[in-house]
Backbone:
């Protein structure tokens, strides 16, 4: 995507979060990268980073050294699987990976992952022994939970002892979490049921059963990994040697990213989870195909999927993402589900017509709180607007779709609803846990509360800062305003909070400051310039950091965040949460001039 104007911005601002869910031994050819185009993807990713990343650094031997460390950390962050001898073998590639990637070679990822899976299988065999072993909780011993303080284990025996303490710790935590458990001060640690018996004995057999299931699930997830995922992790590790928000998105991840921005997909509208190898219906989206049909229920097991009149494919023990891919499809087509019902265990077959599913649960929500119901003697109406992310359907906007997903439009809708209800005395905008989203939406939402004018300035490695403004006048809301943030409010959230603070438009309340992400990312398709325009395969995209942004007062939010006017007590404020705790964050560049704005 290219940066055009604020109203058509294709840059995105988001906190990168890659969950390592799923894994099988990788074939020699890495999934989608194992076809005729396999070599072009790593080559293109290297070229895109060197040409477009804000640091303007080459992919060289220094990057290669960092990449070895980064990929090992990604697979084994707690140093619980690899031995030092494994790491020593991997280190032999420390000056070779840049050259291999530029030649289209990603076999290092295969080699490391194969060793990881071998070690994982060995660990799981030992873990099952340790779970069933007797542990002496009277022994005075400790374990380190900070991997930075630990070297890699020299021997299998040393690794066994780390796992012995880990399993002992797991059992101890379950003992503390048993129904109605009390700490040394007599305070309930955790009560899982309202009528739990505080004197119920700890069931060690049940604890062991839970742990066996937990680690089996861990192993099964990794065993289900596809080559495309390993390649994605490897190329993302490359990207993260430049900064923590640059990443490679494989085709499946890119589709999920698109869904999160558009707030819609084509399928049946059912969220799935896995339990004991069975894909199970976890929830049903209101208004979706499954909800309209009415037969599919929460806790039903999906044991087979067929596309139209095709044969059923057994989905038991299948990776969940594969099951989801089979169920999704073009609106209007038929998907057949073989279901074992949660209530009766009967086997039934449901034919469902796929439809467009709108993810309403992820959009802006508003409510009006009457303070007299909470604080006797007060008489005020408070309008609360919760913004989970700054989403925008870029394709819908480019196609002039009148109803494309837009955070600003949805906030405007809630403001209009407040007005039609007789107005409110104050507005609270809740940005807690909002990791960001589209730059243009942050600008447009800011423009609903401040005078038309500058909202943010962006700067690449070269050239002058570019001031981005909200130029339309849709009727500024002058109601007293409070913006609630925490240490996980990042990026686009910080643009909005910073503008509100700098214009003196409202109070920022919450944790001592926001996350501290001050960079702009652009999602750029891989292969755009290296593959033929016709019959071009989908090869994913690179989310590249291309700019830093600055508040209207000229300050960067990079590592600094937006400080609160009123700080509230918070556990998050005492955790290692923020840009400075991420690996390789770009340094804040200061010295940009204050935007000439009118405060007051």
Residues:
């Amino acid at each position: 995507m290219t940066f055009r104007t604020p109203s058509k911005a294709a840059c995105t601002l988001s906190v990168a979060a890659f969950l390592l869910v799923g894994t099988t031994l990788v074939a020699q050819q890495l999934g989608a990268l194992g076809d005729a185009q396999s070599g072009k993807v790593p080559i293109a990713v290297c070229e895109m980073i060197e040409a477009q990343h804000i640091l303007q650094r080459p992919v060289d031997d220094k990057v290669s050294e960092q990449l070895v460390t980064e990929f090992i950390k990604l697979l084994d962050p707690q140093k619980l699987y690899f031995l030092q001898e494994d790491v020593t073998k991997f280190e032999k590639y420390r000056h070779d990976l840049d050259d291999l990637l530029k030649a289209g070679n990603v076999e290092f990822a295969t080699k490391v992952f194969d060793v990881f899976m071998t070690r994982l299988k060995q660990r799981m065999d030992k873990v099952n022994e340790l779970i069933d072993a007797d542990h002496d909780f009277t022994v005075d011993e400790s374990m380190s939970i900070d991997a930075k303080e630990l070297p890699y284990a020299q021997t299998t025996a040393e690794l066994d002892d780390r796992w012995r303490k880990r399993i002992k710790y797991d059992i101890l935590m379950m003992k503390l979490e048993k129904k109605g458990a009390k700490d040394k001060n007599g305070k309930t640690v955790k009560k899982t049921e309202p009528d739990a018996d505080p004197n119920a004995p700890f069931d060690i057999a049940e604890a062991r059963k839970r742990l066996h299931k937990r680690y089996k699930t861990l192993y099964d997830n990794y065993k289900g990994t596809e080559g495309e995922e390993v390649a994605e992790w490897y190329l993302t590790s490359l990207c993260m040697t430049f900064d923590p928000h640059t990443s490679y998105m494989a085709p499946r991840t890119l589709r999920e990213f698109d869904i999160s921005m558009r707030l819609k997909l084509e399928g049946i509208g059912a969220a799935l989870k896995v339990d004991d190898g069975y894909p199970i219906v976890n929830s049903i989206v209101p208004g979706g195909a499954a909800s309209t049909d009415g037969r599919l229920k929460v806790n039903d097991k999906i044991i087979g999927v067929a596309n139209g009149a095709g044969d059923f494919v057994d989905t038991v023990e299948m990776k969940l993402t594969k099951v989801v891919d089979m169920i999704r499809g073009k609106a209007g087509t038929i998907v057949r589900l073989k279901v074992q019902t949660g209530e009766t265990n009967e086997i039934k077959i449901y034919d469902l017509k796929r439809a467009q599913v709108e993810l309403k649960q992820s959009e802006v929500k508003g409510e009006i709180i009457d303070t007299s119901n909470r604080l006797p003697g007060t008489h005020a109406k408070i309008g609360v607007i919760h913004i989970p992310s700054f989403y925008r359907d870029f394709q819908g906007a480019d196609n002039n779709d009148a109803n494309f997903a837009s955070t600003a439009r949805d906030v405007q809708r809630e403001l209009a609803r407040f007005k039609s209800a007789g107005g409110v005395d104050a507005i609270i905008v809740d940005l807690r846990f909002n990791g960001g989203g589209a730059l243009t939406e942050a600008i447009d939402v800011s423009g609903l509360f401040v005078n038309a004018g500058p909202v943010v300035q962006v700067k690449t490695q070269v050239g002058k800062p570019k001031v981005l403004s909200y130029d339309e006048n849709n009727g500024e809301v002058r109601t007293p305003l409070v913006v609630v943030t925490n240490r996980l409010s990042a990026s686009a959230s910080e643009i909005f909070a910073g503008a509100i603070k700098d214009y003196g438009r409202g109070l920022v309340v919450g944790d001592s400051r926001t996350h501290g992400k001050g960079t702009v990312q652009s999602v750029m398709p891989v292969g755009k310039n290296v593959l033929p325009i016709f019959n071009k395969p989908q090869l994913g995209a690179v989310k590249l950091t291309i700019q830093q942004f600055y508040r209207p007062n000229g300050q960067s939010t990079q590592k600094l965040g937006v400080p609160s006017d009123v700080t509230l007590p918070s556990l998050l404020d005492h955790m290692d949460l923020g840009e400075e705790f991420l690996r390789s964050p770009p340094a804040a560049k200061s010295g940009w001039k204050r935007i000439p704005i009118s405060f007051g």
Observations:
- Residues 17-243 form one domain.
- The chain has three domains: 17-243, 264-358, 362-581.
- The longest helix spans residues 107-132.
- The chain is about 30% helix and 20% strand.
